[in-house]
Fold this protein.
Amino acid sequence: MLKQYTHINRREFLEQSLMAGATLALSGMLPGCAGLSRQQLPEIDYRNGINLRNCNIVDVINGKIINNGSIMIRNGAIDLILDHDPYHSYGATEIDIQGQYVLPGLIDAHCHTSMPSSMQFKLSQLMTNYRQVQRNYIQLIQSGVTTARDMGALPLVLKKMISKINTGQLPGPRIECCNAVTNVYGGHPDISLKDVSFLAPLMSSFTGQSNLWYRNTKELVDKFKDNVKGASFVKLTMDKISILCGKASIPSYDQEDLKIIFRLANEYNIPVVGHILTKYGFDRGLKHGLHSMEHTIGDALIDDRDIELMAAKNCAIVPTMIMAQLFATEEAISSLPPQYTNDYIINELNIRRDFIYTHHDDFVEPAIHSANLESLKFYRKYGCENLYKKGFIQSKPGIFFGILRYGPQNLKKMFDAGVLIGCGTDAGVPFIYHGMIWLELEMLSRIGFSNQDVIRFATINNAKILCMDSQIGSIEKNKIADFMVVKENPFTNLKSLRKPSLVIKEGQVVFSNTGRVSLMQV
């Protein structure tokens, strides 16, 4: 039986969201992880480095396995890779991997780490949301994700969490971020601050603004220059159609604004990425030269010429196909329209149904998942077209059914044309919980990509998209020593990635499935 919730209107949602964010921002005053249990890690002497022995090393670039190899780590970096046991330990601590498979740390190239995967907020659940945001980082690292690209939410909260990670107060991956989303006033995500009470300015001073929302050219230039400080990339939202039930068109950039944005980005030597769900957004992004497209489109098949141009312009894509699956809301419709009745979509909807109606306490606070389930009833109760004016924030399922229809073919054509494909989850939105990157990997496999390709998407390809491929993304000499260890060969069993036995970040063990490692006597 689902717990009953008192649902709130849009004004209350926004006000309480900011209050929750303020709680998160002020959480630095709370000790430790505020009730979260931290794993007791084994005591390891890292002073002279560590050697990983008896490894099956996963070469993601060439799609091969180096059997019975060893990896020597010094000062947090890969010093030497051997296809045999080292003849000498050189004073290093030796860890016996026991024939398991060592991959580079995974990268989630599209997520929202300061969001609790909920669109329902109650004052009584502020600490639940706070716990969940902290859990996001722990769950990422425990799933083998050692690097994440945060696509925007609460910049000041994120800054505090990054500080906790960097000072060892909170386990988590390294984070690349965009600060606020660079968008015109009223653009996606189109929830207006006018719906928030007089407390909004106070609360946002604690959380930071999620949207740049400029109103004129001067504001654009001034806010852009401030927003890029400490950012790794600039995020745009290229569509002119709202994804929210009950809303239609939304403001989008004019051509002059886009010229200014790309000129400033070039001056600051910072890549520009774009949220895109429609052909309109795709065409604009392609014209102006996005570094990567985020998500994929749900209203058209892309013709070969456009895909060839995308490849020629070195525009990558992070498709987040799991978002399409989980947001293709069957609960909103009485029957499946005939255009969505192919075997692939029906299978994905069956997988979706099994997933959302299962408890996932290892990845989300139970109250949050229950509230997400409860919100699905709004579609039938009020009708999608009435939800916004009733004060409920829900997405239009038709957009995401369209991605399930067109996305696989578009992605396969991109792959064949040489477009760089990455891997991201959009975790932080409802039903997509941090640490479940395997959902996206397995869905990409069902589309028809090989396990080698899928793993490449989440490692070296993502590293290239993040402009960090000289540092991470593959197991190579002098790269940062980020690894995940799994029991079975992921090239033959992708599901082995669901439960890493060991995670190493920057040459140190940050997670052990058993709470210990096998240290060798030398």
The mean pLDDT is 90.
